[in-house]
Design a protein that fits this description.
The complex is a heterodimer of chains A (349) and B (222). With 349 residues, chain A is an all-alpha fold. Helices cover 73% and strands 0% of the residues of chain A. Chain A folds into two domains: 167 residues; 179 residues, no CATH class. The longest helix of chain A is centred in the first third of the chain and has 37 residues. A six-stranded mixed β-sheet of chain B has the order 6-7-8-3-9-10, sandwiched between helices. In chain B, strands 2-1-4-5 form a four-stranded antiparallel β-sheet, covered by helices on one side. Chain B has 222 residues and is an alpha/beta fold. The chains are: A mainly alpha (349), B alpha/beta (222).
Chain lengths: 349, 222
């Protein structure tokens, strides 16, 4: 199974990321141990000269993680043809014990990386490296996370066997299948719609407040994470049903298939980008009072707020369009319409 | 205005041909006057000027410019300071052949984003100031040594720097042109600029335009 082009690309990208981070780790340790901006010593000046190089390396490595998660999901979907019983990415991921843990680890890495990149960006805009210790400390924290994600990916791909009969998404996401996900699937459409609409609307609101410079990064981040969870819940519990026009097909991965016009990407890309931006704003909040970042952090946070607000709004809008375009009717239309039309109104600051 | 603390600079560090060009320089340079660095070849004058002018970084030690530590600044900040605060006149002028005098003068102004029209006007005014108005469209290789040097000075001033750094500026000039050059330095100081010049030419170091002479040898201030 390893000799699939997409798997080779994925493992190659992850291995390069891990190697890049591992190469930067000793430098991170040196920074933590010896950094002293007041000193003009040879070692301090060497650290100053090299810090930009290493932060560029780490940034490059971490930016690739955004592509890795997309490729991971896309690959899982494409590989479903190779497994008996698989209809979409769910079947591929369920074909080995490490499939879903690998995906979840990759998602954790994605959001952790978003936070780190925000901090790194702020540090690079200040003249006195105010966050250099923080960012290299966090980088050392990211290293095991990346190693775990890579290990899970490797274990997953090594464990894949084309002779194994896997489960299709229908069994995993069906109501009463016994999984935690089935509990989400069995959630009634109305409460799920309400919860998703309110969470997404609140995330748009906090993003907009952040964008106009009145927001609090922590609130934006919490609202973003809540909206992300609610968004995934919404996809599983009702959005997917409207797209498939089948009242019992809850799979969040079939949305990514060509049969459904790759519509899932219109939902997931804005949702992930918005959540990452909200997390980034939260990661920066703590440093907003650092003297040389007093002007920098609000500027970056405003931009992140814009991305978060636009991303969540786009997710909401796409979801609304999916529901309105569908021939399926899950709830009384007037009530649904009311919630859907209230969503953008709630978003107004 | 400029403060140097424990500046050391090594080339090829850790290799067999390691060379310490500067070996612990502590210095304060006053604003609004001409300061000359005097010393034989290899004494570290040029290395020191490049460090002060943010063209290179020390191996150890700190440089402060107007109370700001500039030796440790990230490159993007250093570039801004170098571009806005320092003007350079090189020994061989380093003008770009094939381009006119006016274009050479305008060149350092492009990265600042100033509109081309106003940049062109300022460059023309500077050339007028140095009596090169009739030669502004001539290619620099057609100019005499004295004219080339005046173009180099005009180019150093295009971004209106506070500090002008001249490295062996009279090395390629005869005595008359050297005296003329020192006169120009005096006029720069009269405009409120600080001038740092390295030379082992007595015409420079003994000039009345120079307020302070710093003697150097073997990478140290004597």
């Amino acid at each position: 199974m390893l000799f699939q082009p997409a798997i080779i690309a994925l493992l190659g990208a992850s291995a390069v990321c891990l190697l890049g981070m591992a190469a930067a780790a000793p430098f991170g340790v040196q920074i933590l141990r010896h950094w002293d901006i007041a000193s003009g010593s040879e070692r301090q000046l060497a650290l100053e000269r090299r810090t930009y190089l290493f932060s560029t390396l780490v940034s490059f490595v971490l930016w690739t993680q955004f592509a890795v998660i997309l490729l991971f999901v896309f690959n899982a979907d494409r590989m479903s043809e190779l497994f008996v019983g698989a209809m979409c990415a769910v079947g591929t991921l369920a074909a080995d014990t490490y499939g879903f843990p690998a995906l979840i680890a990759q998602m954790f890495v994605f959001f952790a990386v978003a936070g780190w990149l925000s901090i790194n960006h702020a540090d690079n805009l200040a003249p006195d490296y105010p966050l250099v210790r923080t960012k290299y400390g966090l980088m050392l924290g990211l290293l095991p996370l990346l190693a775990i994600a890579f290990g899970l990916q490797l274990a997953y791909f090594l464990g894949l066997d084309a002779n194994v009969i896997t489960s299709c998404c229908g069994s995993l996401f069906s109501e009463g299948s016994g999984h935690v996900i089935s509990e989400l699937s069995s959630l009634a459409p109305m409460p799920a719609m309400g919860l998703t609409a309110v969470a997404v609307a609140y995330a748009v609101f906090t993003g907009l407040r952040q964008a106009v410079g009145k927001g609090d990064g922590y609130v934006t981040a919490i609202a973003g994470v809540m909206a992300f969870a609610a968004g995934i819940l919404g996809v599983i519990s009702f959005i997917s049903l409207y797209v498939y026009e089948q009242p019992h097909h809850h799979c969040p991965f079939c949305l990514l298939k060509p049969e459904y016009g790759y519509q899932g990407y219109w939902l997931y890309v804005p949702l992930f980008a918005a959540t990452a931006s909200a997390v980034g704003a939260g990661a920066l909040q703590r440093f907003s009072r650092v003297p040389t970042l007093v002007d920098v952090v609000p500027l970056i946070s405003r931009r992140l707020g814009i991305v978060a607000a636009v991303g969540f709004a786009l997710f909401g809008l796409v979801a609304v369009l999916m529901v309105l375009r569908s021939n399926l009717r899950l709830v009384d239309f007037d009530a649904a319409q009311l919630i859907l039309w209230l969503t953008p109104i709630c978003c107004l600051p | 205005m400029i403060e140097l603390n424990g500046i050391r600079k090594a080339f090829n560090q850790g290799r067999t041909n390691e060379l310490w060009a500067l070996q612990g320089i502590d210095l304060e340079i006053e604003a609004n006057c001409v300061t000359a660095l005097r010393g034989p070849s290899g004494s570290g004058k040029t290395t020191l000027l490049t460090i002060i002018g943010c063209l290179s970084r020390p191996t150890s030690g700190r440089v402060r410019f107007k109370d700001q530590d500039i030796s440790g600044l990230p490159e993007r900040f250093l570039t801004q300071i170098r571009r806005r605060s320092f003007g350079f006149i090189f020994q061989k002028f380093n003008l770009i052949r094939g381009m006119s005098a006016l274009d050479n003068v305008m060149l350092p102004g492009y990265p600042t984003g100033e509109p081309r029209t106003s940049l062109r006007e300022r460059a023309a005014r500077l050339l007028d100031q140095f009596k090169l108005d009739k030669r502004r469209n001539a290619r620099v290789e057609w100019l005499s040594a004295g004219e080339q040097q005046r173009v180099a000075i005009a180019r150093a001033l295009i971004n209106n720097p506070e500090v002008v750094i001249a490295d062996e500026p009279t090395a390629n000039l005869d005595s008359a042109l050297s005296r003329e050059f020192m006169g120009m330095l005096e006029s720069l100081v009269a405009e409120g600029r600080t001038v740092l010049v390295s030379s082992h030419d007595p015409l420079v170091t003994d000039s009345t335009a120079v307020r302070r002479v710093i003697n150097m040898r073997d990478g140290k201030v004597l």
